[in-house]
Amino acid sequence: MRRTPRRTRSLLASGAAVAALLVPAGLYAAGHVGAAGAAAPPAPSPEPAGSECRTSIESSRVVAYCHNPYPSADRVQLHTECARWWDVDADAEPVTVKPGSTVRLADRCWKEVASAWVTHSAAPRE
């Protein structure tokens, strides 16, 4: 009967030692603790960018106005899909919208317009 309490204590001690060794490894693997033991800094939030575009379709003509209220330039491009199968869909030339500026994009189909949309991309550095 004397061996049971001693065995219980040694099992508890070895379990605590294993837990003490595994917890830091688990925290490191989960990303909660950095290499120096400090919490990782939060990821930087992206700077707001991009133009706000308003597109209107009237019969066979498409007009889009894009305004850029942000401090970085934006590059916009108007895409027009025509309703008739024989009418050629069009992609306008990309235009750079400088900060605080508004640009007008226009396109047309021979007959009806099925849909029109504007895509954005990063403006090339000058």
TrEMBL record:
Instruction: Tell me the first and last residues of the signal peptide.
Output: 1-29
Alphabetized, the UniProt keywords read: Signal
Q: What is this protein called?
A: Secreted protein
UniProt source species: Streptomyces drozdowiczii
